């Protein structure tokens, strides 16, 4: 049976999950298992493995998914225990490493290291090109370890890098050394005067380690990726690096290594190298050059290239390596024995295939099979690092499983005389690959002996004596196990060929005069020269181990704990890249937030809604405003419909509940969103013509906004209650509370300035959505003297008003809402950009607006709040989220300023102070700046969040947190708790897609 566990929002690196999958595969009761992030590409891998489930297909790229084929459901518990144990161990190991705190975004990475000049990228290929593009835009060269990048993307990136004076090394670039610092799967090599430019990985590793063991060194070894020399790419990085190496005075000899280039690229490179001012050694693996040129040498093998380079540095010939082996038991050619060769990387495998083919006198190219470098008369050479073997599985440098499987199959073949393999030491490789293979080797030797056959195991160890695995230790372990160990790959291949009774001829090459071909030479960009002359300053995007290594070598490095931006949606990522690079958006966003900072909201009056909202004159006055984006009455949740019933009764349009519901259901009432009338309303937001509303004027924009007054808690209209008590309270607020407050406000010469009041209350512990105690008391402090002086008002009414204000801790919330509306409406007037200017919900949909799209709503299904409940209630009783009060978060308070009110964090279910701090810090990830007008003492007197940027929300997958009350899903029962809620991210996704389309871009 297939069982699935989805861990939402738990991003883990692919290599970690591959290793975890291997461990889980050995558990009893597990027939088959795969652990991966649920990216589209990985879902295909699950499908091919027969492990597709509905839960998997519903998961997102940021979700970790375990799919297991088990006979007993109880086995799943053991699987998940192992998962937790493994991931905890990984986390603990990472904590033990030295280094600075990691970051989770480009912005944070660049803030930590503004002078970074290299991005090292080791993330899934579907996203690697997009992140590389971002790196180039930020002025960083790129080392792209990631594979599965399209050749079209590679060309575009390299052309862009060239135009900016930068470089893209890769994709599929396994190895690099920059100023002696090892990047990715690299050995610990001494610095020296030999420069290397190579295609990818193991070829550079073989060259550099031979050079090191011969006593010389390499300061810069630049990987360019296996496709740079294809016609489609044109050798862009190769040509730029040749220019840079020639300009580098520390380079005395240059080595070029790759598969044979496309002819037009080969001609271009050869022409440039013929003009190179220093000795050059070229090696195009698979070719058999017949001569050298003066200071322009053409090698046949990696070993020859390394010895030529060392000899040129020293001015003397370097002798060949030898192996001490008894050849008396080797087979003869007529025995018909074969070689089975299993390699970690393509260049060494390619070299082995070339030498074996030469030994077999094969003139016709062997059949091309994915992953196989050679299939010839029973002889095989396999590149186990090929995508055919590594897709969804660990690389053979770090996991022995596939090689063990291959060796077992090889020994089962009676024709096999030799099993040939490489052991790669260095950073990124297995800690003891030799030790992990030896038990299998011994077992297979015994198996062959029992069958009366001799199988020679021959290995080359690629490494230096500074590699942490220990070169001599690996060699000695293998020798003690009966393995013939050779100093380099050529010698290992030659020994294997001898072992089956054959040989190959390595040509003796004459040195001819160099033919210099006219070509254009370019001065390397200063940025490239700097890259090769200083230790790189690195932003490491992906595998943490890469960051740990470069840090050991004294590099500045920031670890970017990458997760797929925009939920892994490539179209959205491309949209974000367009919007990030579109000229002027940052300035437009700054204009919006500047208007927020400059705003001067003033509470001017309290009047009946119909006196200031002209829309109430429509439909013969039978108009009701509601919270959120537009919604039909039939789609309103029950509490909002109940609030509508209460409004109809309040307005005396009907005498009974039945009559009121009939009017509502028959369409006799016109519904308009509060936001369409310069108004906002809490929870249901229901506002009718004769309800009392506050009038807030933003004097800098000369615009006004309106909001009903807070009714207190318990059975109140905004939570769906509509009985006689509720209606009578509303009428008292209309007839007494509103007129008295209106009179008091009008008596103030310039009204009541709101900004000073907010600044005071935030310092006293309010966040202005769930907690308004301080602001409500400060408001009472301003009103009470004015009210007591109203001699034309009865003493009872004055007392009742002051008592109501004193008892209603949340009274200021509605003033804050009107303030937020007035400020944000002015901020979007005449502006543009991606700043969110409104957030609201109607129990059916959540809606947002952004500055660049005016009045247009972008909606998604509303969520249900999570939080704490009053006694007797739980989440099953909760109504989906309602209300315009999220305008406070748009302004920067409420949940965005959770840290300002640590006393309320437990009530809204956020935990304690540390959780409040974490929440507000996380909210800073999605805003443009801080508002200096309102500083928070508990946040080191930093300003509140300012300007939610829809781009950042989508990029980071962090939605604004909103503090809110929780209504019972049944009308009439009122508030049952309080908590937090998040908008659906699709609102923000729709907004940025629409805005990009407006600017002319469509992914």
Automatic annotation (TrEMBL):
One of its GO terms (cellular component) is succinate-CoA ligase complex (ADP-forming). One of its GO terms (biological process) is tricarboxylic acid cycle. One of its GO terms (molecular function) is succinate-CoA ligase (GDP-forming) activity. Residues 191-283 form the CoA-binding domain. It holds the Pfam family CoA_binding. Residues 343-496 form the ATP-citrate synthase/succinyl-CoA ligase C-terminal domain. This is Acyl-CoA synthetase FdrA. It comes from Dorea formicigenerans.
């Amino acid at each position: 049976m297939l069982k699935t566990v989805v861990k939402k929002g738990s991003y883990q690196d692919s290599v970690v999950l591959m290793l975890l999958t291997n461990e889980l595969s050995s558990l009893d009761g597990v027939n088959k298992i795969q652990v991966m992030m649920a990216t589209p590409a990985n879902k295909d891998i699950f499908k091919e493995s027969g492990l597709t489930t509905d839960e998997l297909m519903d998961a997102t790229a940021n979700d970790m998914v375990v799919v297991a084929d088990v006979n007993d459901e109880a086995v799943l518990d053991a699987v998940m225990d192992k998962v937790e144990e493994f991931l905890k161990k990984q986390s603990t190991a990472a904590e033990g490493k030295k280094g600075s705190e990691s970051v989770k975004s480009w912005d944070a990475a660049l803030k930590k290291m503004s002078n970074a000049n290299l991005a090292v990228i080791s993330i899934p290929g579907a996203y690697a090109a997009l992140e590389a593009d971002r790196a180039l835009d930020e002025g960083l060269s790129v080392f792209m370890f990631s594979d599965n990048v399209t050749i079209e993307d590679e060309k575009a990136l390299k052309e862009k890098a060239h135009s900016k004076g930068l470089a893209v090394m890769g994709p599929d670039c396994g190895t690099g050394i920059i100023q002696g610092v090892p990047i990715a799967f690299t050995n610990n090599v001494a610095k020296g005067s030999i420069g290397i430019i190579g295609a990818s990985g193991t070829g550079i590793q073989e060259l550099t380690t031979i050079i090191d063991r011969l006593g010389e060194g390499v300061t810069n070894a630049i990987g360019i990726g296996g496709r740079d020399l294809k016609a489609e790419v044109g050798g862009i990085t190769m040509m730029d690096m040749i220019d840079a190496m020639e300009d580098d005075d520390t380079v005395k000899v240059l080595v070029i290594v790759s598969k044979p280039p496309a002819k037009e690229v080969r001609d271009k490179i050869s022409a440039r190298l013929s003009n190179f001012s220093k000795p050059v050694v070229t090696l195009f693996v698979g070719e058999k050059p017949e001569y050298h040129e003066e200071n322009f040498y053409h090698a046949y093998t990696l070993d020859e290239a390394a010895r030529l380079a060392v000899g040129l540095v020293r001015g003397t010939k370097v002798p060949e390596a030898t192996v001490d082996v008894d050849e008396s038991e080797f087979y003869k050619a007529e025995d018909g024995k074969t070689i089975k060769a299993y390699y970690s990387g393509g260049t060494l495998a390619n070299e082995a295939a070339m030498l074996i083919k030469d030994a077999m006198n094969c003139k016709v190219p062997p059949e091309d099979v994915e992953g196989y470098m050679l299939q010839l008369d029973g002889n095989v050479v396999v590149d186990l690092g090929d995508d055919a073997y590594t897709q969804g599985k660990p690389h053979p440098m770090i996991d022995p499983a596939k090689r063990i499987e291959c060796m077992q199959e090889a020994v089962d073949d009676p024709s096999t005389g030799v099993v040939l393999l490489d052991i790669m030491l260095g950073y990124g490789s297995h800690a003891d690959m030799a030790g992990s293979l030896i038990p299998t080797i011994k077992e297979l030797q015994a198996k062959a002996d029992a069958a009366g056959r001799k199988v020679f195991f021959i290995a080359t160890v690629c490494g230096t004596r500074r590699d942490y695995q220990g070169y001599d230790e690996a060699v000695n372990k293998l020798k003690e196990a009966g393995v013939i160990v050779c100093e380099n790959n050529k010698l290992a291949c030659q020994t294997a060929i001898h072992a089956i009774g054959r040989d190959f001829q390595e040509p003796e090459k004459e040195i001819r005069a160099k033919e210099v071909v006219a070509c254009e030479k370019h001065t390397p960009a200063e940025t490239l020269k700097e890259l090769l002359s200083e230790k790189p300053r690195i932003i490491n995007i992906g595998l943490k181990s890469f960051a740990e290594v470069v840090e050991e070598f004294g590099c500045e490095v920031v670890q970017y704990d990458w997760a797929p931006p925009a939920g892994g949606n490539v179209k959205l990522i491309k949209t974000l890249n367009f919007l990030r690079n579109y000229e002027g958006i940052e300035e437009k966003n700054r204009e919006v937030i500047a208007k927020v900072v400059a705003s001067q909201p003033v509470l001017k009056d309290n009047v009946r809604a119909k006196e200031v909202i002209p829309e109430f004159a429509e439909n013969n006055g039978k108009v009701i405003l509601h919270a959120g984006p537009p919604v039909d009455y039939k789609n309103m949740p029950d509490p909002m419909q109940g609030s509508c019933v209460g409004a109809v009764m309040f307005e005396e349009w009907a005498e009974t509940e039945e009559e009121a519901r009939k009017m509502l259901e028959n369409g006799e009432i016109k519904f308009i969103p509060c936001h369409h009338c310069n108004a906002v309303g809490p929870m249901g937001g229901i506002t009718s013509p004769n309800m009392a509303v506050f009038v807030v004027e933003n004097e800098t924009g000369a615009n006004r906004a309106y909001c009903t007054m807070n009714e207190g808690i318990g059975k109140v209209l905004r939570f769906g209650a509509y009985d006689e008590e509720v209606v009578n309270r509303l009428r008292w607020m209309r007839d007494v509370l509103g007129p008295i407050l209106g009179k008091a406000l009008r008596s103030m010469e310039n009204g009541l300035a709101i900004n000073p009041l907010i600044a005071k209350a935030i310092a006293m512990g309010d966040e202005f959505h769930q907690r308004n105690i301080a602001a409500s008391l400060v408001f009472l402090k301003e009103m009470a003297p004015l009210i007591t002086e109203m001699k034309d008002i009865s003493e009872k009414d004055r007392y009742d008003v002051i008592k109501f204000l004193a008892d209603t801790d949340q009274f200021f919330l509605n003033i804050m809402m009107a303030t937020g509306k007035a400020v944000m409406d002015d901020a979007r007037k005449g502006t543009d950009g991606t700043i969110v200017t409104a957030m609201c919900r109607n129990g059916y949909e959540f809606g947002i607006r952004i500055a660049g799209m005016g009045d247009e709503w972008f909606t998604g299904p509303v969520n249900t709040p999570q939080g704490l409940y009053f006694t007797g209630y739980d989440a099953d009783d909760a109504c989906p989220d309602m209300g315009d009060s999220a305008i406070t978060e748009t302004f920067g308070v409420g949940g965005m300023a959770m840290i300002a009110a640590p006393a309320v964090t437990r009530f809204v279910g956020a935990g304690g102070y540390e959780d409040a701090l974490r929440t507000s810090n996380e909210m800073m990830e999605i805003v443009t700046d801080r508002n200096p007008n309102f500083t928070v003492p508990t946040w080191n007197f930093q300003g509140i969040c300012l300007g939610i940027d829809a781009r950042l929300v989508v990029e980071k997958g962090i939605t604004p947190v909103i503090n809110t009350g929780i209504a019972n899903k049944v009308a009439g029962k009122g508030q049952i708790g309080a908590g937090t809620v998040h908008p659906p991210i699709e609102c923000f996704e729709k907004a940025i897609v629409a805005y990009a389309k407006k600017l002319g871009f469509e992914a």
